[in-house]
Design a protein that fits this description.
Length: 137
């Protein structure tokens, strides 16, 4: 069974200037970080030509597919029956990206195949992470 899920998707960057456009993105789930999902946008999708990545709770993605969810830097909500909006906040502003809901659901179901909902704690290495933190201090 794979330990990492890496799924290519197309999203729509919502903007007024120059205008909304399709952008590639990658959804990533790693069993070594079982509570999180990652969304990565390649350099061609950003204004400054650098890869942009966001990490947030897998539960937030699941909740956001059903109802408006999130606080802080990431907000997710359904946008009609076929799309889901992800809103990313930074000190410089915000980005709104629309994903096909079916792609996000498929990714989420694949992640549950690797680490079932509720079984995340079995994949955490709290002692190892604490030891690494103490070594860095």
């Amino acid at each position: 069974m794979p330990h990492v899920i890496d799924q290519a998707v197309h999203a729509r960057l919502i903007a007024t200037v120059p205008r909304s456009r399709q952008v590639p993105a990658r959804l990533r789930y790693d069993v070594e970080d079982p509570l999180a999902v990652h969304v990565v946008f390649p350099p061609v999708a950003s204004l400054d030509g650098a890869e942009v990545g966001w990490t947030f709770a897998r539960d937030l993605l699941a909740d956001g597919l059903r109802e408006p969810s999130g606080q802080g830097d990431v907000h997710i909500w359904p946008c009609g029956p076929d799309h889901t909006m992800l809103e990313f906040h930074t000190a410089d502003g915000l980005a709104m990206v629309q994903f096909p809901a079916r792609d996000l659901r498929r990714f989420l179901m694949r992640s549950y195949g690797v680490v079932p909902l509720g079984a995340e704690a079995r994949h955490l290495d709290v002692e190892g992470d604490l030891a690494a933190l103490l070594r860095e201090a």
